[in-house]
Specification:
Layout lengths: L7 H7 L4 H14 L3 H7 L5 H12 L13 E2 L2 E2 L1 E4 L3 E7 L4 E5 L6 H10 L1 H4 L2 E3 L2 H8 L8 H5 L11 H17 L4 H29 L23 E7 L6 H9 L8 E8 L3 H6 L8 E6 L7 H11 L4 E4 L5 E2 L3 H11 L4 E10 L6 H23 L11 E4 H6 L10 H11 L3 E11 L5 H22 L3 H8 L1 H33 L9 H32 L6 H5 L1 H21 L14 H8 L6
Parallel strand pairs: 5-6, 7-8, 7-10, 8-9, 12-14
Antiparallel strand pairs: 1-2, 3-4, 4-5, 10-13, 11-14, 12-13
Helix pairs in contact: 1-4, 2-3, 10-15, 10-20, 10-21, 15-21, 17-18, 18-23, 19-20, 20-23
């Protein structure tokens, strides 16, 4: 016959906890001066959730688990009346009364139950949870930037590798080390095959994207009827994350002031870090009534997506878009986006505007950067869109339905290319992204150091994105389909393979041509034929990229020269260096945001004067 217990211990006994464990807990707890409930948790006999759910049942009030509630807050400050661990924490207000979550200390269990029995009306307003759940709700879940990691942790880059991925990478690295011990001929032919296949895939994609999009309109002119002042446009929010950009504030505000959108339906929020006093002061005297500065509270990691998440919480618009510090969007871009959303299906989550460079002819890096942007935003992304394949979004000028953005968890604050990740995540949730025929002009980095810093961040973010969406390849394949998964994986993975091997291919070619390296043994006719096929595959990749670059540059009016095309392999050497730096940063500082300084171009002033009368 079992002992008699009272309170939460009796509830635990009814749930199957052994009498011996309960009686021992009661006996030992008395010796050290704590409650039996606390003893059970500290000795890991039962979980914290088990004890507090038993208390809730004994008190006759609901129990809510961790991540089962979110606090009401004002300016991101949770409305709590007690401690961070114990509450009360305001979680909702009904038509008749507020509702609170509490997690009383173990020593207060008896008093809490007696109080709730004495005041039954109060008991109807109370829910019980655990201290860790209240702490989580008050910190992680209260911060808008914590939505993704709370709701969809499998999509967060906070954890770099799953256990399976870690084992896979470890095995692959060991295989690589073993492979280095193999005969040189085997290594040569194996790496040649891998590089050739990556070149063929990339070359085909570049060639086909150029051909498939050559008749696309880069910029659509809105019908005259849509200029009517009688049209009621949807509410729109523009988010502009900034960090140490005081130099560029006047021209940024002037560019956004040119947006052709009713200011009564538009709000522009400049998102500034708390420590960035210089940029905050630079806005003095420049803001219009529909423009506001939002100070983002300190937090980790300090990234653009974290700032965007805070801006999203305050946004009132039905549609959301992002512009960067150096952006100069065409004035009618918001109207075009609103029109396309109204004509598109309800699954249309995002429209990516085209990005172009307006300081093309200022340095070697700005020329190559501009041509690269033209290939990506005028060819490759529109081609992916034509085929209904998911594509990585650009970091700016992407327009979202607010409701869908909220439903998928917003931006991942741990991913340093949150745009690439979000484009794929939207597809996994069943939504689609489109291409907007409107251009935003940006400033390309001028010098090697600035270019390298930005580019290595991009590649680091793409590595994060691949790791996140390949944690469970089977699930990803079910959600977006095998063809679409292979397309996006080949787009990113194939580029990585080319960047990783390109320097070694160049060095090998220079060594063979100069005579410093002996030609590899061909092993007869079959070997010579195989080597010729690999060489043709590599050449096809270069030719496809050159063809696409030439077409894209001419459409954008850059008039690329033959030297620009001839120097593509040289530019790719720099991208390879950025890739290897990205791999290193991914290992040692995955969440660090490499800041790009803007406002350094002298050529942009001339370009802006030529675009002052943009009409779309």
């Amino acid at each position: 016959m079992h002992e008699s217990y009272s309170g939460e211990l009796e509830i635990l006994r009814q749930r199957g906890i052994a009498d011996s464990a309960l009686s021992a807990a009661r006996r030992e707890a008395e010796k050290i001066g704590i409650s039996a409930a606390e003893y059970l948790v500290k000795r890991a006999i039962v979980s914290e959730a088990a004890i507090y759910s038993a208390l809730a049942e004994h008190c006759g009030v609901p129990f809510v688990p961790e991540m089962g509630f979110r606090p009401q807050s004002v300016n991101s400050i949770p409305l709590g009346l007690g401690s961070l661990d114990n509450g009360p924490l305001l979680v909702g207000v009904s038509a008749t009364s507020p509702h609170y979550v509490i997690a009383p200390a173990y020593s207060q269990f008896t008093q809490v139950r007696a109080h709730l029995q004495k005041f039954p009306d109060l008991a109807g307003q109370i829910r019980i949870s655990t201290p860790s759940a209240i702490r989580h709700a008050s910190t992680v879940m209260n911060a808008p930037s914590g939505d993704l990691e709370s709701r969809f942790p499998e999509f967060s880059a906070k954890v770099r590798f799953s256990r399976t991925q870690f084992v896979t990478f470890a095995v692959a690295f060991l295989a690589f080390l073993v492979g280095l011990l193999m005969p040189k001929a085997v290594l040569f032919y194996g790496l040649s095959s891998l590089f050739s296949m990556a070149c063929i895939l990339t070359g085909l994609a570049r060639w086909q994207s150029a051909r498939a999009t050559e008749d696309d309109s880069l910029d659509l002119v809105l019908p005259v009827a849509l200029t009517s002042p009688l049209i009621r446009w949807p509410a729109y929010t523009v988010l502009v994350p900034l960090y140490r950009e005081a130099r560029i504030v006047p021209e940024l505000v002037e560019g956004l002031r040119r947006l052709d959108y009713p200011t009564s339906r538009l709000e522009i929020k400049f998102l500034l870090e708390k420590e960035d006093k210089e940029t905050r002061e630079a806005f003095a005297g420049h803001l219009d009534p529909h423009m506001h500065v939002v100070v983002v509270p300190d937090g980790f990691p300090r990234t653009k997506p974290r700032a965007l998440a805070y801006g999203l919480e305050l946004a009132q618009g039905e549609f959301i878009t992002i512009f960067d510090a150096e952006d100069q969007p065409q004035p009618d871009q918001l109207k075009k986006a609103a029109l396309f959303f109204s004509l598109g299906p309800k699954e249309l989550a995002c429209l990516q505007a085209r990005l172009a460079i307006d300081n093309f002819d200022e340095s070697f890096f700005s020329r190559q950067y501009a041509l690269e942007y033209a290939c990506l935003f005028d060819q490759l992304i529109p081609w992916f869109h034509q085929l209904s394949w998911p594509f990585p979004l650009g970091g700016t000028s992407n327009h979202f339905r607010r409701s869908i953005l909220d439903s998928v968890g917003g931006w991942d604050k741990y991913n340093v290319t949150e745009d690439a990740d979000l484009g794929i995540r939207l597809a996994r949730f069943g939504y689609i992204c489109g291409v907007l025929p409107s251009t935003t002009y940006e400033e390309a980095p001028l010098q090697w150091r600035a270019w390298l810093s930005q580019r290595s961040r991009w590649y680091k973010g793409w590595l994060q994105t691949l790791c996140v969406h390949l944690r469970d390849p089977g699930r990803t394949c079910q959600e977006i389909g095998l063809t679409r998964l292979m397309a996006i994986s080949s787009m990113i993975g194939g580029s990585f393979v080319m960047m990783a091997l390109h320097p070694f291919v160049v060095l090998a070619c220079l060594g063979y041509v100069s005579g410093l390296l002996p030609w590899p043994s061909s092993h007869g006719f079959a070997g010579e034929l195989y080597l010729a096929l690999c060489t043709c595959g590599a050449l096809f990749g270069y030719i496809g990229a050159a063809f696409a670059t030439l077409r894209a540059g001419r459409r954008r009016g850059y008039r690329p020269s033959l030297s620009d095309i001839a120097l593509l392999p040289v530019y790719w050497l720099f991208t390879s260096l950025a890739f290897y730096r990205a791999v290193w940063e991914f290992a040692v500082k995955p969440f660090e945001w490499n800041k790009t300084e803007h406002g350094l171009s002298r050529q942009r002033a001339k370009s802006r004067r030529g675009k002052a009368n943009w009409s779309g």
